[in-house]
Design brief:
Length: 567
Amino acid sequence: VILSDVIEEVRQSVSQDIDGAEILHSLLNAAWLQSLLKVYECLQRYLRDSPAPALDYSSGLSLEVHLPKQFNVVIILVCLFSIKALLSAHDTIALKDYEPVLPPMPEDLPDDEEATRIVCLVKNKQPLGATIKRNEITGEIFIARVIHGGLADRSGLLHAGDRIIEVNGFPVDGMEPEQVIQVQARSHGTIMFKVIPITERPVHNQTMLYVRAMTDYSPQQDPAIPCADAGMSFRRGDILEIVDQTDALWWQAKKLPSSTACAGLIPSTNLLKRKQREFWWSQPYQPHTCIQTCEWLSTDICSFSSAGFRRSMRLCRRRAHSTTQPSCNTRCPSSCYSALNSPYEEVVRYQRHSEDVHRLIVLLGPSGVGVNELRRRLVEMNPNIFQGPVPYTTRAPRGYEESGREYFFISREVFENMVYHNRFLEYGEHKGNMYGTSIESAKEVLNSGKICVIDIEPNALQAVRTHELRAFVIYVKPPTLERLRETRQDSYITTNYYVNRPFKDEDFQEMEEAARKIESNYWQFFDHVIINNELQDSCVELLTAVMRAQDEPQWVPASWIRPTSES
């Protein structure tokens, strides 16, 4: 019958002067013909490879078994009974018909009847991994999406766009999606769907994409998500593997390292930007209009630096905190906006080659937490490996100072010109003199083969996160308030008004508050976090993290490896 239909279709096409190649192409792509060929292949394979017993009566072989006379009678009987039982079991299995008994096709089947598929899935502890939607006009229920790695996806039997007719024998047309889910939830062991498959499935050309989350997200707090249970929460700094971007609004992703095969729904970049603009949840960070390089950020402590130098840098830093920051009137680099304006930052796995320059090591933390001391000790461990850049200043050199060693001494006009051309990672003013750390100074240390170590204020992060410096950012976090009181009872702090004085409780509280602000705004940029509980332990952890940054693969912004013309 089918063959006659094919001949008739070809005859009509020829009579209508349709191109022969077009006829052949449409015929070979017809779904019914492809299904027929699959059935034919299965039948041929069954006829060719169908199992058959070697003998119809294998248990008769037991009568031909002859054992030597010297065998014990008991052993002979046991052997005979065992062999006969084995062969009888073979006969029972080999002669039994295990083929399913299919009901006959109804004779009154309409010509326009849609092909249906019965899908039976075995339930386990994992969710089905599919969402459904309802056509509000017709009341029909469809598969909205199949979650990557879920039970439905692994089965390969359900696809987005399939229409669900029945669930465990219950017709679902006209039901609300919640009612269909309840029917499915009452299933035990197996769940059976009767579906009309989608005729043409979209081809998914997915590319591997990894991103760093630059914001927090909770599906339970998102009223717009299609299915909160299918959503995946994440926090700033988490690495996400995007496995499906078919939906323009809702992507499917896994959080690395992943302990489950099933992906979760997350908002796409455009959707999450829109949500942030609508302020439907509290903003995790407040983007800056540019790098606030107008604050002074403390530079390195070299082995030849004096105590007076370190003290002046700390005083300058505290003064910068207490003054109003002017707006940046210079041209900000494009990287100033990239990470802060997007909820996701594309990342790649980066392994530094031995011939490449080292990554810049950046330390930051609230004032008084011990950032300067950790950096100083790291440099002192091995000055042949670790070094900091020499800063610039407009003040006059003292008698023992030498340009290029303690500082580069330049005029204010030259300094301001360097500011205008964005040559500083950070800069500021103290007692009428300008101080700054230049990008070139850091690159000189790296190009010499050493590991450059600096400490900065958080608002200079975007200046160091470039494909040239490839900064590895280490955040030094204060311990609990009780631990601060215990470990800092014999320590001193430098303020605007006192060169050195003992720590007070308000200093610890200010440190904790500053830490909360830093973490709230910049957590997504931290590659490693050290809780400075015990200074010696923190030094060991710092050294380990620094060497790991140079020798082990790390997630870095994709723009560092594939820099654009603007970066």
